[in-house]
Amino acid sequence: MAEYLAGEIGARSVFATHYHELNALADQLTNVANAQVLVEETGSELRFLHQVVGGGASRSYGIEAARLAGVPAAVVLRARQVLSRIEANSHVGLGVAA
Fold first, then answer.
1. Residue 52 in 3-state DSSP?
2. What percent of the chain has pLDDT over 70?
3. Domain of 76?
4. Environment class of residue 32 by beta-carbon count within 10 Å: exposed (0-12), middle (13-18) or buried (19+)?
5. Which of 58, 71, 72, 93 is deepest in the core (most CB within 10 A)?
């Protein structure tokens, strides 16, 4: 979807994701840029710094944000398991020519 919107029709869009495949679009398409919110990590604790900087995030904080919001521990654990499986099996190639 992002590849089509940026490459074929040049639409202005915002995606919230950590997926490295989407982050890589900025290297291939001149009209794509990545930004992230800075996070301070101390052990298992996170603090969102409310600062936006250029570049894609190196990892997902969605599950941690859910945990901080009070999502039950069993749901957070299951989400971590699913995310690990997705990341381990991610082999999406981009068909966009630079």
1. strand
2. 79
3. 60-90
4. buried
5. 71
